[in-house]
Specification:
Number of domains: 1
Helix content: 25-40%
Largest sheet: 5 strands, antiparallel
Distance between the termini: 40 Å
CATH superfamily: HIT-like
Structural class: alpha+beta
Length: about 140
């Protein structure tokens, strides 16, 4: 399938849809998930077009994974988390809903379950959580 340049993440990259950006470099963008399954839940995407892991170039994967690792450390520090869950889905049958490569980064605490998917978060709380992550990045 072809990449759709009008997917929601492409629109976020172009600034057509607002987002709470946490980190950006030449190749990647990290922003808060508006339907967080945990406090500090964020997404990491490449700035260049690709549908998912299956069609990403090694360069795209390398850049995104470096940012995922960096943000994994930051969310653990920001939220005093004991672990981090990284999620990534490919194609509709694999659970993918937005067809632009993205990784979910979720700080985790022992014994605390993830919230159900698809529930809008409190935007003020999400903004506060983003600040905590930015502070942890230094």
């Amino acid at each position: 399938m072809a990449y759709d340049p009008d997917n929601i993440f492409a629109k976020i990259l172009r600034g057509e849809i607002p987002s709470t950006r946490v980190y950006e470099d030449d190749d990647t963008l990290a922003f808060m998930d508006i339907m967080p399954r945990a406090d500090g839940h964020l997404l990491v995407i490449p700035k260049t077009p690709c549908r998912n892991l299956l069609d990403a170039s090694p360069t795209q994967l390398s850049a995104v994974m470096a940012t995922v690792q960096k943000l994994g450390h930051a969310v653990m520090a920001a939220f005093g988390a004991e672990g981090v869950t990284i999620q990534q889905f490919n194609e509709a049958a694999g659970g993918q809903e937005v067809f632009h490569l993205h990784f979910h980064v979720l700080p985790r605490h022992e014994g605390v379950r993830l919230r159900p998917p698809g529930q809008m978060g409190d935007m003020a709380a999400i903004a506060e959580q983003a600040e905590k992550i930015r502070a942890a990045l230094g």
